[in-house]
From TrEMBL:
It comes from Brasilonema sennae CENA114. Keywords: Iron, Metal-binding, Oxidoreductase. Pathway: Antibiotic biosynthesis. This is Isopenicillin N synthase family oxygenase. InterPro entries: DIOX_N (IPR026992), IPNS-like_FE2OG_OXY (IPR044861), IPNS-like_sf (IPR027443), Iron_ascorbate_oxido_reductase (IPR050231), Oxoglu/Fe-dep_dioxygenase_dom (IPR005123).
Amino acid sequence: MVMIPVIDFHLFTSSDATDRQTVVQQIYQACHQIGFMYLKNTNISNDLIHQVLKQSKDFFDLPLTVKQQLAWTDEFSNQGYVGFERERLNPNNPGDLKEAFNIGKQKLTDIDVTDKLSSPAKNPHILNFYQACTELANNVLQAIALALKLPEDFFATNHNQQNHTLRLLHYPSLSQPPKLRQVRAGEHSDYGSITLLFQDEVGGLEVRTASGKWIAAAPTPDTIVVNTGDLMERWTNHVFCSTKHRVMIQNDDTLNQSRYSVAFFCHPNDDTEIVCLESCQRDKSPIYPPILAGEYLLSRLQATY
C-alpha cells in the first residue's frame, strides 16, 4: 500500500553530507511515487502556525458584508476574499463548500488593502508566516534541485520574485445536506511548483495514488504537508507527479465542525520558461511544449472561476 512518507527535514539543513543526501533521496522518492510528503522539524514553529490559524478564524468569523469589502476581483491579481461556493476546483461539481482569502507578497504592503483593519494581510503574524514559508520553500526547492542533479540554487533562483500566494481556508460546518457531488474542495491538482499545507485537527484531505485509489492525508502532529504541482510535473517531464487531491465531507462528528487550513502556493517567476529539464528527458521526448510560468497560472485561474 502506498503511504505518504514522513521526512525529517532538519537533517537536510544540518551540515552532515550523508544526512543531507538521505533527505534528498527521500524527497525524490516521495515526489516521484506519490507527489506528497509530510515534513517534520522545519523552521516554522507550531506557535506561529497556531497564531495564523487563529487569525484566519477571526477573519472568517466576521460578517459577510465586511469580508466582501475585500472581495477577490480578477485572476490577474488573484487576491482577496473568495466567498462560499464561488470556486469550483472540479468544474464538473457544484461550488466548493469553502471560503478563502488569498494574499500575495504585493498585498502585504498594498495600502489599499492593508488600510482595512479587517484584512488578514495587515496582521504581523501573517507577514512573519509568509516570510517563514518562503524560507522553507526555498530550502525544499534546493533539495529538489539536488534530487534532480541540478545546481542547488536552480529552482530557488527561478522563484526569487516571490510570486507566491498564501491562502487562508475555511470549510464551515454543515447544517444541511450538500448538493449532489458537492464536496469541500473538488478534485484538483495545484498549479505551481510546490505547495506547503498546514492543517488543523479536522481531517478530510485525500490524495489519489497512481493506481487511482484515494488515501487520507490525515492531520499529523508537528508536520507540514508538501506536494508537487503542475509546473514541477511539466519541468520534470512527469518524473515528479502533480497529484490530484480533494477535501471530502466526512460522515462523522467533523460534519458539524469547521475545518481550517492554510496553503502556501509556490510559483516560479512569471517570466520563467518551464521547459523539460535535460536530466528528465531520458528515453522519452518532452511531453509538453515550453510555457511561461505566469501564462500557465493565469490560464488555470481563468478556468477555476
